[in-house]
Each structure stands twice: as C-alpha cells, then as structure tokens.
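G., before I forget:
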Amino acid sequence: MIRAIAKRELRSLFASPLAWVILAVVTLILGWIFLLQVDLFLRIMPRLALYRHAAGVTALVVMPMFHSAIVILLLVIPLLTMRLVSDERRQKTLELLYAAPLGTVDLVGGKYLGILGFLLILLALIFLMPLSLELGTHLDWGLVASGLLGLFLVMAAFAAAGLYLSSLTEQPILAAISTFGLLLFLWIIAWAAKGHGPGSHILRYASLLNHFSAFARGDVQVSNIAYYLIFTLTFLILTGRRFDADHLEH
Amino acid sequence: MAENLIDARNLTRSFGGRPAVQDLDLTLDRGEILGFLGLNGAGKSTTLRMLAGTLAPSAGRISIAGIDLLSAPKPAKRKLGYLPEQPPLHPELTVSEYLRFCAEIHGVPRPRIRTAVRAVEEKTGLTQVERRLIRNLSRGYQQRVGIAQAILHEPEVLLLDEPTVGLDPAQIQDIRALIRSLGEAHSVIFSSHLLGEVQSLATRVVIIHEGRLAWSRPLVGPGSGIPTVAYRAGLRNPPPVEQLAVRTGAHGVTPLGAGWFRIEPPDGATDEFPRNFLDRAVRDGWAPFGLSAEEASLEAIFLSLTRGETPVPAEPAP
C-alpha cells in the first residue's frame, strides 16, 4: 500500500514540469558552484603543497558544494512538497485514500517515501559531480560519505516539515511559503546565540545548520543523526494526526 | 433472502454545532438499489461520507456486511466502493494508470490487478480511452472513471453520490444504464435530487429532509409502492354524491363528469376498500364500468415532505 502511494506520488511529480525544472536548475547552479570551487582549488593547490596536513580536495571542493546544496534545497524543497497534500485536498482526491482500506501509516508513509524517492534522485545527481573528480584525483571517501549522509538527513527533515505544512492547507503556495519560512527560521535561529548567554545552547541545538556542519567535517555523531530523525519523525507524526483529524472535521 | 449489507443506526453528525444529519437509521439489503433522495443540503453527502468511512459520525454506529465500520475500518472498507460527489481523479494520470493505482490501494492482489483493470474498463466502456490522460476526458468519461474506481475491487456495496450530476442528457442515460447493470452484481445506494432518476433506477427510495429520515418505501416487490391517494370509479347509474360517500365509507367523493367519480378512501384504508366498494356498487345497481387507483407521484410525496406536510398529499397529482 505504501509502495502504491509512493509510486503514484513520484509519477505525478514527474508528470509535472516542476520536477524536471527543479532537477535542471539545481544541477545547473550546483554545477556552476562546483566548477568555481574546482577552479579555486587549482589556484591554491601549489601553496597547499607547502603544508604537511593541508586539507584535501574533498574538504575544499566537495564539502563547500554540499553546503551550497543545502541552501538551494532550502529554496527548492518547499516547492516540491507544497502540493503533496494540499493539491489532493483541493481536488478532493483525498477522499479516495480515506475511503480505501488504508491506515494512517500507509498514507503518511506513502506520501513521504514518494517525495523522498525524488530527493534521492536529486541527491544522486548532486553526488555525480564530486564523483567526476575521482577521474583525476583521489577523494576522501569517508568524508564524502559523511557529507552525503548529512545532506540526506537534512533533505529528509526538510521534506517532513514540508509534508506537514502541505497537509494543513488547500493552497500549495501557502504551504510553500510557510515551509520556507519555518526552515529558514530554524536555519538562522542560532545567529542569536553568538555569546554564551542563558539559553544560547538551546538556540544552537535547535539550529538545522549546526548539526550539518559536523557531518561536513566528517564528524558523524549519533546525537546529530538523532536530531534529524527526531525532527523528521515529529513532523510525520503531526501529519498523521492531521490526516486523522480530517475524519472529525467540524 | 434479505441480508443487511449496511446497517446504520442513529447516525448523527453536526458541523460546528449545527446538525447535518440527525438520528438516521438506514439499511441496505442484498440486491437492492436504494435511491437516496433529498434537496441539496439535506445531508445526503454527509450520510454517504459516513457510510464510506471518510467522515466519522458524531454518534451512532454503522456496520457493513456485519463488520463494524468504526472499530474495524479496514476490513469494512474492503466491502465498499465509493464515488464521492466530486470524482477523486488524478488528472495527470492516464485512465489505466489511475485504475491500477486504485486497485493497489484497495488491496487487489498484484497478479490480479491487470485483469481487474481490464475487466472494469470493459464494463464501464473505458477501453477506448485507457491510454488517455484523465485531464483530457469529457465530464461523462471522467464520471465513468470515477465509477470504475468504485467497482474495481468488486465491493459488495456501492455508494454513489450524485452520479449523474453535471452530465448532459446522453451521458445521464449512459450512466443510468451502467448503474442499472451494476445493480445486478452489487447492492447500490445512490443519492440524487432528481425524482425521475430515483423512480427509474431504484428498488427502494429513502427521502431525507433536513438531516432526518422522512420517508422510506420499496418501489418494487410485495408491499411496495407509493400509497394510493384515491380511486377513480366509473358508474353508469350512480346514486347522489352524498349517498355515495355515506354508503361506501369514503372520506370524500368528487364527481368528475361522464359518470366518473374520484373516491378518497378513509384514513387507514387497506386493499379491502376498493373490493368492498365494487361489491357495494354491484349490489346497489350502480352499474360500475371502471375502477382505477390514483397513486401519489413521488414528486408529490417529496414536495409535501420537504414542505413539512403529511406524507400523503391531499391534492392529487396531475
């Protein structure tokens, strides 16, 4: 059941030009950033040779690109998730799912895995760029894997928040704006925590960005993985509750 | 053999404190086509949504083929096919893609999906358009896709919410013929605000007004039909009009000319009344030459109900 819903979601995404345009735009912009990083690396490479423990190509090209990727995802994922539920609500197709012998887990899981499937395709495209460096040099695969894991967890968290906000409204554009607003806010929340004032560690902990930075350094910690998983799960549970509440509409 | 496929008791649903459906009892027997009649806003869609399990009732219980819908929704919903007022179509899919998806979420076993989709396309006349995007189909074909979706998993009960609304006359004829043929294999509840439609399709009619059950009566079979409001008797040799009423126990008699009289039976009259009337006419030498029953039309019943009058109208139908 979950598979059927996820498959349908993915099909509908690719049936609209939006998905293709997003794949194209993200690839184009990240490709440009990637080239700039490679260019920069080539220019500073002679000087790097002077240091014993200089950062390698993975840290200087791939990780900055992953950082940029997250900023782009911040803009793009709300556009991908905005229609997940709101469109069905508007077209009254949710009734089809509600009348079918499905549980809430099927509904939320199907919707979420559908969008996650698309994001995995996007992740694969992003991954192809650093992979091309392997032709001329050697990558630090441990660091790449850590960065990819971080990137994936960020995507998963963004998508879950987007799914929930999409389930609240009939208007995709509202879902997109509120998702973008929420994610951006959680992104910059740590800016307020410059010093060591009371509560600043809470702000720093809440920030979506801080947890990714560790992955980009190759520092895979269970606490950071847990942060993203809890974030994702929270929004999925909220989405489920929203679906359940539809039966009780007032 | 009567068997309750749907048994709903004391269904109640309110929206924002305003009751939409109140204390509604509804049953559907195997093989019935039940016409669910009511004005717009009478609570038809709300009732059907509750029966389909997409809206939880505020009070009451629903059992589908003996399974409680509220405590065991999954097995109960497997027995149901539901076409909402607005067909739940994904316009960006082709007809067969959409139907395959519907088969999957309704738990049709994987190896049977292909044949199930093909069979239902044939039954609903969609084979020609199976590769077209739903977006590009006419309203009539879209409605067929909606019905196909509802019968795909061969449910025992079909709930169709206003299946012919918004269609042109030719499409309406098509969909009605389709519903009639579906009635052979499924038990059907369809809602409508069109009397003719209910009269031509349904084996039983339920009228709902302001959220309450107002009238329920079979239209075919024994004990069926619409109550007789009056008889027309032709008498070649009638007595005076006052005498006619007194001697037959009629509630009222109106001469119609040319020997015809309109005889209103007294309240609570049975089939005995016309027989006794004829006996009397023969015995007293009135020389009867004709007797026919005048039925209230569904329209008259409907209108009197929805105006809050008594179920049997005082005025004869034209």
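The interface with chain B takes residues 1, 3-5, 7-8, 11-12, 15-16, 91-103, 246-250 of chain A (CB under 8 Å). Chain A is about 80% helix and 0% strand.

More on Monday.
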